[in-house]
Amino acid sequence: MNSIELGTCQICNKDTQVFRKYYYYDIKCECCLVTHDSKRVHAEIIYYCQDCEPKPPKTITFESNPLNK
Q1: Among 11, 22, 56, 64, which lies 20 to 30 A Cα-Cα from 47?
Q2: CA distance linking residue 48 with residue 5, whole number of Å
Q3: Where do the domains of the chain lie?
Q4: Tens digits of residue pLDDT in 7-25
């Protein structure tokens, strides 16, 4: 069964039906449990409407632990 997601477009700020575009980064982070090509990566989601073209975010935020404590 298909579902329709309603929300705010992150590009034009319209409240309407939105779609998701996932961008994957070769960063092993503590905030995502996402795997892409069998490798753990960081993911960012862009919510966009049918009138807008999704683009990768200019800045990303992730959580990570230092190599030494």
Answers
A1: 64
A2: 11
A3: 1-69
A4: 999 999 999 999 999 998 8
